[in-house]
Amino acid sequence: MTILNELGAERVPTWLATTTNPPLTADIIAKIVNNLILIFIVSLLVIVVIVVTIAVCIVRFYRQKNEIRESATGPRTRFRKRDKVLFYGRKMLRKVRSISAATGKKKKMISKLTKKFLQMKKDHLPTQLHVLEPAAEYLQEDVSNVPDQRLPPEVAYMLQSIRMFGVFERPLFLELCKHMQTLHLSAGQFLFRIGDADENFYVVQSGRLNVFITESDSSTVTLKVVKEGDSIASLLSFTDVLTGHPQPYKTVSAQALEESIVLKLPVAAFQEVFEQYPETFVRVIQIIMVRLHRVTFTALHQHLGLSSELVTAPRRKSVAFNSSPAKRGGGAHTNVGSYEENNRTPDLLDSDYTGQSQGNAGFSDGSQQPGVVRKRFTAPIMIGASMSAPVLRHGGGSSASLGQGMENTYPLSTTDEDMDEAMSTAIEAFRMNLGLEDDTLVKDIIHIRDIPAGAYLTKEDSHQDSGLVYNLSGLMAVTQRDGDREILMYHAYSGEFVGALNVLTGEPSVFTVRAKHYTRVAVMPTSAFYSIMSKKPKVVLHVAHIVVKRLSPFVRQIDFAMDWSFVESGRAMYRQGDDSDCTYIILTGRLRSVITRRDGKKQLVGEYSRGDLVGVVETLTCTPRSTTVMAVRDTEIAKLPEGLLNAIKLKYPIVVTRLINLLGHRILGSWQQSSSIASSSAAIENQPSHVNFCTVAVVAVTEDVPLSAFTYELIHSLSAIGTSLRLTSDYMKKVLGSSILESANEYKLNSWCAQQEDKHRIVLYQCDTAMTVWTQRCIRQADCILIVGMGDGEPEVGKAEKLLEHLAVRTQRELVLLHREGGDRPQNTAAWLNARSWCSSHHHLQCPKKMFTKKARHSDYYVKLIRTEPNVHSDFSRLARWLTGTSVGLVLGGGGARGAAHVGMIKSIQVGGGGARGAAHVGMIKSIQEAGIPIDMVGGVSIGAFMGALWCSERNVTTMTQKAREWSKKMTQWWRQILDLTYPATSMFSGAGFNQTIKETISDIQIEDLWLPYFTITTDITSSSMRIHTHGSLWRYVRSSMTIAGVFPPLCDPKDGHLLIDGCYVNNVPGLFFFV
């Protein structure tokens, strides 16, 4: 009020005098807003007028400037109307060869604005896989000839002809060759005949010789015709001479067919060398036993059906050991059951049956090396409640109950006197048969076991360590399985040994040994035998003699006819068009069969690995070789001449049935393969077939790949399939010395690696991160190379990878991409494969989180893991089955399969479908998973293609069921079908809605980005053929495979423009392609 007083009351309005805060009414606010709008409009008009004025001025300025320029140049030339029409006519009719830059920019700008305005998505196609044919070297043999000029021709012949000499070092072999003699034979002259001493090796340097046998009726049968470079030798006779049991020629003779030069090497020369080099001596005997195991007892049994014909069965009566079972305990059953009965009896030497006290600690498998994993057997042991545990004693006098904590197995009441007498008898038997001077080495390692009737000591194809078994009393039956029946090989009476061959070779047992009556045995574990062998190498000879004396004379005839050959990497074993005079059995290594077509193009036929029979079809049919077979890596083979096969057929006509069966399967398989593959895509034709890899090298793309953890996980999964071994450079230096990788020790390293391959089902070579000497060794030894990278990394080629193209030209290479557990779906696989044209295929592996921790780098972290059972559904188990040729495939069929489910020939589950029946695929997959059956690869056609794609994408039954249910609901919505109707020129529906539902369900991904290998079948109506799709857009090929002609229009293949429809028209259940 002070201010108002100073100004005077007359100058202040009355309403302001009464209050200091006059009210703001709506009229006042409206007036203020109107004033502001008016001011804004006026200002805007002023600005517009100014801009227009400036623009007019500029336009006038340029017009005046142009007028001045035109007035200076003269009047403007103009076209006549007819000239203008002629000009534009020629312009429209001429060919456009280029477009100006300005026009292109305008088009791009218009296109960009249009897409932005219409909100159109960018048409971005993912990286497409470029399918390339294998390199020329992959299917070509190495024709270079580099002979060893440092060896005399005679020595080179001997070295190449008898592969066993390859285990000798060069100075040692040259020492042997000092005893070599040269023989000159005229036509008709005998090299040796019946009655001569069998104690020499022969190699034909020139000419030809006939090796034949003389039967009891004086008739002769030719075993083989020996040509230049071939050998005449029996490794069994070699063993007899070394063990001091030389035998003369009883049925075999050799006669020159023409003038010949033969090299002779006495076996006695080896005895001097073996005195100085006992390690080589042991290795040679092991090689002979391994060859006997794989060729005679395994290959001839599997392929020719020979069993009891290979062994002798002397007729003897069982000699009871001192006291009868009744004396040991009146309740003992001397004949619990017949041999055919009691099928659920326990396996007393099974690896699961390991309940032992500390006094029996020596019986555990102490020979198992670090990194070695034995096959596990988890079958429960069936033991009756009325049977007591058998007593186990060792030389130290303490006893332990076998299978502590379990129910009793046999009512036993033995006295100390009986056990001591049995132990002394066993010790003396082992001492004499092993050729030891005293019992110091054996008295503390032998165990006495009482075996009830019907119990197994070992089973066929079992990897358990049964040791060297001596029968003290009772009777054991040795059998071999032939299909669904058991064939009795021989009976092992008291005083005889069992298991000698398995102890020497380390291979799975080829026989089943079962106690036919109550039996007491003495057991020497394999680890104990090897400890004795390291101190007394000659014991290996005596054990080998135990094996050899059990063989039949027929086996010795086979041994004379067989040749042992060595094929270097890249060399051809035989060529297309050669004469077929023998069949081959692969001992170690790998062979590849290639056919050359009339147009000169080479095509891969197949690959063969250890134990396979090669060239049998041409030999039996007496036709020239149809393919060229070459060595992928250094390979050892056994040659079965045509004469030997004829002799076997004459002696045992039952073999003819097996050969006809074998020949029929081979011919039928080739017909099926040619008829189905001929029309397939190039992707399948160029993919190498593989089974049964024996050696695998693992190479890391970058240093951040957890390679050690990867190999530990893989070796853990391989242990469920067979014996496996993981080798690293550090392990090699630890076992064989720090200088083992030097060039001076190359022989020792080669020999040791070959020995490990003989002992184990598969050997895993872990390469170094750099291209070291050890990495090169791994690559040379490998049947297959795994290139391991991180799936979320960049697809760049590593340094070690670049050198593989030159070091491993013929070796199959596989890409393995690791993904973290719970991570995203694989992406950009095509870019990885395009950068590595040498890779045959790829594998996506989801890895547990523990692999990427620091603890996983240490081997101690995986010690506990190795002892657990692997998960058969894991990705590592899937890779392990793929490497060993035991993968399980699921084929989901289409329309006419009537929902049938049946099991394929190897391991292929085929399920039919079609329309509504295809919904049953979900339940079938759920049942397969609940049954514990893994699914390693999936194929499908029609509705099976859709369900298979869902499973490969999700690998979860719940998610797959939800997506399949949602898709089925969409397909039954009538309004979608009405909107998709079109004029029926090609089909009833346009297919747009069908495309959208499939694309929404399985996403727009590539087939190579699926978790599991996948293929689908379509019918190509453009070329009237079947198409197999293993890569490319998933939803497009699934949609094509589900396209019913006349209902939906065919889909265009983006690769070649061919039209594709439902694959059921050509193949409803394509299970055969898993075998391709």
UniProtKB/TrEMBL annotation:
Membrane topology: Single-pass type I membrane protein; Single-pass type III membrane protein
Chain span(s) of sequence motif GXSXG: 940-944
Record-linked InterPro entries: cNMP-bd_dom, LysoPLipase_patatin_CS, NTE, NTE1_P-loop_dom, PNPLA_dom
EC number: 3.1.1.5
Domain Cyclic nucleotide-binding, first and last residues per copy: 164-274, 473-533, 566-640
PNPLA domain residues: 909-1075
Residues annotated as transmembrane: 36-62
Ranges where the record places region Disordered: 320-370
Keywords: Endoplasmic reticulum, Hydrolase, Lipid degradation, Lipid metabolism, Membrane, Phosphoprotein, Repeat, Transmembrane, Transmembrane helix
CC annotations in GO: endoplasmic reticulum membrane
GO biological process, one term: lipid catabolic process
Motif GXGXXG location, chain numbering: 913-918
Residues forming the catalytic site: 942 (nucleophile), 1062 (proton acceptor)
Catalytic activity, as annotated: 1-(9Z-octadecenoyl)-sn-glycero-3-phosphocholine + H2O = sn-glycerol 3-phosphocholine + (9Z)-octadecenoate + H(+); 1-hexadecanoyl-sn-glycero-3-phosphocholine + H2O = sn-glycerol 3-phosphocholine + hexadecanoate + H(+); a 1-acyl-sn-glycero-3-phosphocholine + H2O = sn-glycerol 3-phosphocholine + a fatty acid + H(+); 1-hexadecanoyl-sn-glycero-3-phosphate + H2O = sn-glycerol 3-phosphate + hexadecanoate + H(+)
Subcellular location, principal: endoplasmic reticulum
Subcellular location: Endoplasmic reticulum membrane
Record field: compositional bias (Polar residues): 353-370
Gene Ontology MF terms: phosphatidylcholine lysophospholipase activity
Job description of the protein: Phospholipase B that deacylates intracellular phosphatidylcholine (PtdCho), generating glycerophosphocholine (GroPtdCho). This deacylation occurs at both sn-2 and sn-1 positions of PtdCho. Its specific chemical modification by certain organophosphorus (OP) compounds leads to distal axonopathy. Plays a role in the signaling mechanism between neurons and glia that regulates glia wrapping during development of the adult brain. Essential for membrane lipid homeostasis and cell survival in both neurons and glia of the adult brain.
UniProt similarity note: Belongs to the NTE family.
Self-association state and partner proteins as the record states: Interacts with Pka-C3; interaction inhibits the catalytic function of Pka-C3 and the esterase activity of sws.
Protein name in UniProt: Neuropathy target esterase sws
Organism: Allacma fusca
